[in-house]
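Record format v2
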Amino acid sequence: MLVNIALRTFIVLGHKAAISPHFTLNDLAGSGGRLDILCRCINSAFMLSHGIRTGVRVYLLLQNHVSLRFEGGSLKYLNPDERSTGALIQKALKNRKKIKEGEELESTPGIYVSNSTLKEVLERVEETGLKIYILHERGRDIRKARIPEEVAFVLSDHLDFTGREEKLLAGYQKLKVGPKILHADHTITVVQNELDRIFN
Amino acid sequence: MLVNIALRTFIVLGHKAAISPHFTLNDLAGSGGRLDILCRCINSAFMLSHGIRTGVRVYLLLQNHVSLRFEGGSLKYLNPDERSTGALIQKALKNRKKIKEGEELESTPGIYVSNSTLKEVLERVEETGLKIYILHERGRDIRKARIPEEVAFVLSDHLDFTGREEKLLAGYQKLKVGPKILHADHTITVVQNELDRIFN
């Protein structure tokens, strides 16, 4: 179950990401539908040089259909390389078959799988009282925004938000991290650095 | 041959990184001696959302013995995932056998392999006129330093600099990227963002 603690949260949309476990770890980019990006996002969100950021939560939202929720406070077996994170995702997708309608299942410590849409995930994040921002190249510079400590960010993989997603996200402010357009995982790294500087 | 153009340069020291091609792409972290870190450093140094940073050069220095020089202006076949970058490194290490003493060989477009030490690489970078900094947790905040556009950064993989390396690097200023100690690849991402903001 999701305990409603406000944790620094990232919601990453994987538009083509595999929702079945039948992909090969040897080709996360191709067979996994760019799962390589999502694995790097997990790395950027959680990894410090000497440990894991415990106060972070990440939702990987696969094809607006499957949610993988990662909890920094209880995560185990997370290593920085893409392949081992891909294996944790694969395991979660295997365990997904055991879920009953509306349920969420802990696949490995700190990784929860459920069938959820962006709308549902946003509702859950709203409930925790976090202020939600969109990370987007056409946003306001993050250094000029007054970001609270209890905050969530929505960002997309290598593809743009769909029209439907744009509608759902229309009420939130867009932020960008700098003058260049970065990959999703690099964007998360820069955001973490900005927040580290404000809330260290 | 190294054309002496001053390019934003990163020199990453891989202390245990494989110098023979006999590692498996399925275990870059273990069999490759944490080559996964170096692959992510390449990604952080070069990758933009819509292309490659052409004005960047990276040296991966493996066991203070083998240098892999990546040139953003001519790089081909570089993808963001670790495994495909690992394959380019493996190919370069295979091609290394063809090098005669003192030579450098272009393994694939934009990737050059040679037998070189840190001392030699530093000499080459000095020749291009770049100001060299060390990226290190006990450095001065990068936002407070006046970094020139023509700049090089030395940083280490998951291990500290050795005593010998510290001696070689003693003359250069140390910079840190924030209050938390980050992985090498995240450090590069943050540095790129800082420089993008200054020199965009």
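The CA atoms of residues 10 and 82 of chain B lie 18 Å apart.
Chain B has a mean pLDDT of 96.
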